[in-house]
Amino acid sequence: MRHPTDPGRYLLSRSRAPELVQPDDILEFTLDSQPVKSTDLRLYGERVIHGGIYQARSDVNAVCHHHAPSILPFCISGMDLKPVYHLGATLGEKVPLWDARDDFGDTTLIVAKPEEGASLARALGENWIVLMRRHGATVAGISLEELTFRTIYTARNAALQIQAHMLGLVSPLNRAETRLAGEYNLRPGPVMRAWEYWNARLDKAEGGGAQVRKRAPRKSGSRRTKKRRR
Amino acid sequence: MRHPTDPGRYLLSRSRAPELVQPDDILEFTLDSQPVKSTDLRLYGERVIHGGIYQARSDVNAVCHHHAPSILPFCISGMDLKPVYHLGATLGEKVPLWDARDDFGDTTLIVAKPEEGASLARALGENWIVLMRRHGATVAGISLEELTFRTIYTARNAALQIQAHMLGLVSPLNRAETRLAGEYNLRPGPVMRAWEYWNARLDKAEGGGAQVRKRAPRKSGSRRTKKRRR
Amino acid sequence: MRHPTDPGRYLLSRSRAPELVQPDDILEFTLDSQPVKSTDLRLYGERVIHGGIYQARSDVNAVCHHHAPSILPFCISGMDLKPVYHLGATLGEKVPLWDARDDFGDTTLIVAKPEEGASLARALGENWIVLMRRHGATVAGISLEELTFRTIYTARNAALQIQAHMLGLVSPLNRAETRLAGEYNLRPGPVMRAWEYWNARLDKAEGGGAQVRKRAPRKSGSRRTKKRRR
Amino acid sequence: MRHPTDPGRYLLSRSRAPELVQPDDILEFTLDSQPVKSTDLRLYGERVIHGGIYQARSDVNAVCHHHAPSILPFCISGMDLKPVYHLGATLGEKVPLWDARDDFGDTTLIVAKPEEGASLARALGENWIVLMRRHGATVAGISLEELTFRTIYTARNAALQIQAHMLGLVSPLNRAETRLAGEYNLRPGPVMRAWEYWNARLDKAEGGGAQVRKRAPRKSGSRRTKKRRR
């Protein structure tokens, strides 16, 4: 997530499997993805995904890059990912598909160079999720809670869309429904109801990172946040 | 569920993720979905689904609105959901598909206004489950136990039907089999065998709501209950 | 399972969800499915499945009736279930599909009458598994361990076959391979290796029935057992 | 795995379900798959898979034979398994499909004779994974960590490819991407990040074999290892 008081920095774990991340693993980075304090710890190669988007989008305060199994089939086949149920409306009206081949030819498929992060951020544009061909997805949010909500429900939307294709014609939300349902579900009520649940799930799993998880939800934010959370 | 002694009221949790609901979270509502005692707690926006059905159907004593992953592909594709195995006969002979667009045009897809709840209840009609286009399902029962049984096994029926479509022709139960198998499986024997199992599962999960779960099963009920539970 | 010392009787739980069954729940039945001691406990309606097969097949010492999710799509679509990997060879060379409609017309789909159990046993014939249209499967074995092995791996075979159909042509084992691989995998070595694992899984789950599970595996049995377990 | 100090021997458990294997179960074998110390313990029939590959491939220090559910549909249908996301690049450029019928006609499908192990090793050739028709897969690695990484992510690649086929055209990595992404992901950083996670998962599961799991990762190895792990 973007640093809560310094918008020119962001927070990201050292390179570690997400389930194992502890509070001490969280490091501070400049927007060009350099660690603020020099460190010998191994860093994620793909942190430029985060830096590139925070640079390009001042309204974005949290970013998630993932390879959820339900999302990948869209990245492999090129099938359009569409909002197919109300919670999937958090996809937004358009889901771009970025292909590293277009700008960079044959690569490792890893987004590790500043220009690769910038290219991906351009593909994201004003949208909230970008699919990455043969790789995964990157999701943005105005807050950590919104990001989590969008990441989880867009992955579920993808799983439902795959199953619906197996039954025949897929009839997605139209543009107006997508906008209306997206705004409705991203209000504090639905988001914090889910947030309480996910916290409870993490507590049951006795996983790490409890201090991070239990921080108070953000009550205020950018102009956009205030506007949306009516 | 409908209030056990006052049929003009119903019980529903405050707005909270179902897994977290505790006995104190259960509130009492009038059939027009107003809380009996004024409260500052956040309430579910979709409680009119419940109120609308209790108003329209005096034989219904329990309602469940859900978004089970196996049901949604039918709500997205419009494919008919059919009873394909004996326990799926609890679907009943007809499963209507309600589309908010028909009566209300572009919406949030959330059933939050009294007229939306009434429209959905009309679509349900005399049936026991109604699919909601691009949203989920709403299920009704004459008791909480019957409702739980129907909700779980109709979701499984849906999952089986999807897989069967992948193999080719789907051969569902006919009308007579649906009626006979539905009546057989909704007798107290099969329902309470499953009820004991679900209670044990919840106990193992150490989830909340134990007091609610452990209440004695209803031994008597509406005329319909007595008639059916032969 | 058939009674270990009296082949004219069989053992079956009172009507209870399998996960909850305790040693005291196991009752003794005659082969015409009457309890040996009169009881007020609720009994499974479908125990005639067991009695019917023990009557018809003296080589069968254990029977399992189930509704595994991977098996049902074959019962719904009528697609042939075939051995598609070595462990699936325990299906045997032929898997009949029984349809209650053929002998009994419109029913509850429940096999509850002696003549229904007998009809199903005839459909099973000399095979080891019979699919039941729109209902489930019934599996037979010469011992409880073989039955468990066959039930689990034939359900997995079904899941694999469904996925293989999604990729295109399904190329099953031929008859000779089915016979050879079936015999190989039903020897004591492979069966008891899996049996030890399943016991460990049950112990971890802290489920009931520990005494039953921990009984020593049968070292001897019918002539068929001795012949096969070379 | 190959013996860490004697390349003419390998280590393999006695015949036991993998989840239950304890350190004392690990036995030492010669490359022709005979136990170094005579033993009464039951041994895996298929150990010639391991011996055959260690004999044929001096660069291979770890072998895994498995029947993962996502891999089998490719073994049944004959559909080509392709790298479809960056982590799937660990498949390598070619995935041969070996069919026991070609060399041996009708068999048990079990690879139990030295000549069967040798035939499979020839089919593997210079590649890193070989599919076995109607049976499973065998995977090779230059270290236990690389093997684990490849085995897990190739199984996930298979699951994703199946889902992608359901959406339409599958667009895999090209040869250059496969080589580049494979090399990138098999460096110590990505592999040991996953290795730490899998160890944590096993610790949570309180499974056996802790001593084996916690050994220090290999810091050096064959020339190939040194070259690759730059």
Helix content of chain A: 40-55%
Oligomeric category? homotetramer
Mean pLDDT of chain A: 91
Total of helices of chain A:
9
Which shape of chain A, going by the Cα principal axes? globular
Q: Separation of termini of chain A?
A: 23 Å
Structural class of chain A: alpha+beta
Tell me what you see in this structure:
- The structure is a homotetramer of 230-residue chains.
- Chain A is an alpha+beta fold.
- Chain A contains nine helices and six strands, in the order E-E-H-E-H-E-H-H-E-E-H-H-H-H-H.
- The first copy, chain A, has a four-stranded mixed beta sheet. A two-stranded antiparallel sheet of chain A has the order 1-2.
- The two termini of chain A are 23 Å apart.
- The model of chain A is unreliable at 207-230 (pLDDT under 50).
- Chains in contact: A-B, A-D, B-C, C-D.
- Chains A and D meet through helix 2 and helix 5 of A and helix 5, helix 6 and helix 7 of D.
